[in-house]
Give the backbone structure.
Amino acid sequence: MQSINMELAQYSELFMLIAGFIYTGAFMLFAVDMIRSSATIRRVEAELAAENAAERTLVSYGAPADNPGTGEPEAAPAEELVDEEMAYLGTRRPFANVAVALTVLGVAAHTFAVAARGIAANRVPWANMYEFLTTSALVVAAVYLLVLTRKDVRFLGTFALGLVVTMMAAATMGFPTPVAHVQPALQSPWIAIHVSLAVLAISLFTLTFAMNVLQLIQHRRELSQAAGETTRRSGWQFLRLAPSATSLENWAYRMNAVGFVFWTLGPLITGAIWAEETWGRYWGWDVKEVWTFVIWVVYAGYLHARATRGWTGNRAAWLSIIGYGCIIFNYAVVNIYFPGLHSYAGLPE
Amino acid sequence: MAEKRENTYMPAGHRDAPEAAENDPRTAGGKPEVATPALGVKGMLRWAWTQLTSMRTALMLLLLLAVAAVPGSIFPQRVQDSFAVATWIEDNPGAGEVLDFLQFFDVYSSIWFSAIYLLLFISLIGCILPRAKKHWQQITSAPPRTPRRLERLPESGALELQSSSAGDAQDGPDAETALQDAAAILKARRYRVEVRETSVGAERGYLKETGNLLFHISLVGVLICVALGSMFSYRGQKILVEDESFVNALVAYDNFYPGAYFNEDQMQPFSVSLDAFERVFDRESTTHFGQALDFTADVTTRLGADGEPQTEELKVNQPLTMDGARVFLVGNGYAPEVTVRDGDGEVAFSGPVITRPDDGVYTSMAVIKAPDASPEQLGFVGLFLPTSQDAGDGLAVSVDPELGNPELQLNSYYGDLGLDDGLAQNVYVLDTESLETLNSRELDAGGIVLSPGETYDLPEGMGSISFDGVKDYIAIDIHYNPAQQGVLIFALTALGGLVLSLFLRRRRAWVTVETTPAGRTLVRYGLLSRGEDFKIRDENIALRTQFEKKWPVRAPEKES
């Protein structure tokens, strides 16, 4: 077995810390952007008002050509600050933009740290709790950035980066583990597939968790708004820069569907194949297997809830949140406190 | 959110999925949700069936299944560790018995867990069958008839084509030709198309529903294969010391768990013998020094009674397949070779003693029973330490998993070992309560400490014990499950069905043509998605772009 490159391993740990600090900075700036929402809204409203005034003089030139449908021009309501499809509307949010730039920087440092760890140990960098968390955090941040290139999800920044920072802190403070070779049971090509799919699924579920929480809050605001309460002074202004609850729900659903497929193939199917190869049975109701099954069933329930009368909207969102709660439990509590075959936490005794 | 939302996705075909009825403009308004139960047994049964196969019930059962699975992770389960269950019940008198009665230690074979998943699967089958029938009808019949008012569909549009007879610059096709063109375009976009008198009906994405059905049918397949597996499978365990052989026959097993319909004749005739065993430990790391890195068992296998012997490697992630049965390396340890002589000088025990490693440095429990010894039966309990080191106060501990300084540390006892009354006993446990102690740290005689090659004479002329050497042993699991492949295949088809049903889009499109009083051709089209479709607006734009490319479209008249 090839020796471990200790120097590279140390660089990995250093860059993990650096990435953590950069993420913290990004998180803080996203928070500042959130707090300054009312200022942003005032500016956007002023811009919209000016635009509308200009448009009124232009309207005699006819309908915009790219308008599908019957060719009638679709007048956008002036109070619409966000697009339901989360497209960029050109809203200037300097703090959020710097935060995004910092996130890019953080992901770069983080990628180096994770890759260096893998190269140092000459294996995949997700074989214990520390590595699993740091890799998951990287995927969460990277997926968030990926979505940002196509959709304006800056409103999600505080939540996404908050979770990333939490994961990084939990990994480096809660489960610090020096780099090492892995025990024989983990030396299988399946670790690359089984665990990476779990990481992908969990990263998606992390993002949808944030969206579903936001959906619930947004829904409350929409209700009070419908009841005629003014949100000008009360309530959270940043919610006006977030899409509607329905839009959040739809997007969370689309990501959850992908996450569910990953979860089916990763933890469930490839997990069973690997379990058969190592332990001689594909399913044995080991604690980890129980919770993998529970999570799968909860998310399956979520997908069905979206098709059941009276279960869409908030209830579906709650199911998704409960599913994520089970994932946290499966990760944090089951690994540490429940004895089972999956005791690979690598924690010092 | 309680109101009906357009384009809401309906994944499974449960009965109250608002599905077609709500999305279909022809039956807008829908039917009453639940019929009042009719009187009489038949009516009640029908009502119960409707309830069971409703989406809401299925959802409840699904969530209930998740909740019911949880206790299995909280309480020890007999399928995994019956010893832990016995200990738990002993430690929690009262609660233990109650929970045992409620099958909390056999959750996954309990009545209540089985009831939930069986009801769930009945509900599922009750949904699949009518839905498959309906899907078959839709596949084999033409796309649905054209709605009267296309502009009421979620996505629609209209194009007025130019006509030179009406004084336009270009001459567009007449209504008949436009209809054929539209049909061709829809066909190219992979719609199934039917051309009618003045309209085209089209539908695509039938595979979405096929995938949905495939997913649910596959789940039934998985369940059936799991059940078949538990009937016809067998599994067992065997400990194999270096140079020993195992022949796959019932008598050879240490533990054996047959399926309900297991037949001894189905056991594959093969043998495995352990030639050598090698352990590799981490010798470089400062933080993980001594961690196990690799276990390799060199074995000789033989298929059938007179098959060719083959040398093979058995490793942790590398099981052997012997005629359908699989052999797994699940454990290993040290087997010190010991000879016990009794007070008469006769050999009462001789051979390797299987010790049970307790930790990463192979601190191993050793129990030796010599019931043939006379005048008194002899028993020994203690530890085997691969690399023994004095931890101060005379207490030795193992500091390394490899054989650096192997030592046996034993207490000895004499008396009736309790083996003669025919009751089964655990080989790894010696009940010392009714025995007299000969050697122990508490006694003047002290404990027995032996290195390889050494012999210790027991006090009171009871005999002697010698430590002759150390052998390796491996623990192997033998599994045979003929339905295992079936489970995998159905799991994969389920995954395929899931992908189809989640990511394909089922859409209907209609195009109508008419000739305006001015002599121009007016093309109207409408789109309807069945199920969740976030891209139907894109489809509208793409379709319109293709129409505009095909025909000279007249600029829309300005709204006054």
About this structure: The longest strand of chain B covers residues 325-342. The radius of gyration of chain B is 38 Å. Residues 1-33 of chain B have pLDDT under 50 and may be disordered.
